[in-house]
Design a protein that fits this description.
This protein has 389 residues and is an alpha/beta fold. 43% of the residues lie in helices and 17% in strands.
Length: 389
Amino acid sequence: MHPIRSNLRWAGRLAAAALTLSIGFSSTTALAQEPVRIGAFLSATGPAAFLGDPELKTLELYVDRLNAAGGVLGRKLQLVAYDDAGDAEKARTFAKRLLEQDKVDIIVGGSTTGTTMAAVPMVEAAGMPFISLAGAVVIVEPVKKWVFKTPHTDRMACEKIFADMKARNMTKVALIAGTGGFDKSMRAECLKVVGSYGVEVVADETYGANDTDMTTQLTKIKGSNAQAVLNAGFGQGPAIVTRNFRQVGLTLPLYQSHGVASREYIKLSGPAAEGVRLPAAALLVADLLAADDPQKPVVVGYRKAYEEKFKSDISTFGGHAYDGLMLAVNAIKAAGSTDKAKVRDALEATKGYIGTGGIVNMSAKDHMGLDLSAFRMLEVRNGDWTLVK
């Protein structure tokens, strides 16, 4: 178990800062200089690194930018981040460390549903505001007092996809899903809402996390009377499904989840991704948004800052971290302190926050604050994302 580079960098800064303190400082002055500690456990390495790596980079980038602009409440921000490598047990250990040893003021993290849910009981018991960056609806339903999230839910993805199928006069769908936490949750949510859109599930296949070939499942789907296929999953599995989909000769419309909303999916899938549709945040199509779209300045600004700093493509996952940090900072400002109960109440009272994921309006019954309008339907054309009108 090891702190990520943020921890090491901040340890050096804090050590240097400590040398500047004099015995003559009053306790009030010393307290004012205490940093606002932002805790994070992220899957920066391992199978979910495509989520955690851009999330960590985003948090580091914007903590530095906020500090350069004066910090929050006259105090600097300190990022205390750990790499759980996608392991729920490690996430639990690091969450415990953030709570008990690092004494953070708020936690922004949890790249996956599994790592997030491992920490939920502890943050609830400790009374720690926690903003998750993971997708499954179980994170915020039922509502948990101290837990919030930034990404759109898997249920919303199902609804957006089925609405698009309905608009294309498709009434029969084949499901294929992984067996991970997000995959299972999205499959279950799709089965709950599919009937509301007049769509029938005519095939239902699964694949394991370590499977490298899904042609058997897809051949079964090819033998069904499906008019479209929906893959509920994230990571490398969906890219394998996409390639195998073409290899077995399937020509039906293929939908993927928002769990693959990055250019990496297109790279891994190659030409087989052509025509694939998925719901995603506006961030991926920043330049295609209308000039008067309220999200445009936010997503264009984030993309510019990220790409200039890291010389790599953006993903919606980094955007989730941006929103999580900004929601945290805004709540601390609104609370006027880092008092955890006040910050929690301020988060729950968030209205009209314009982020990379959409316009957020939270309430006591909704700790995510996004509706279906926050999702854009995208399609891969000529190796790039396009906006479905």
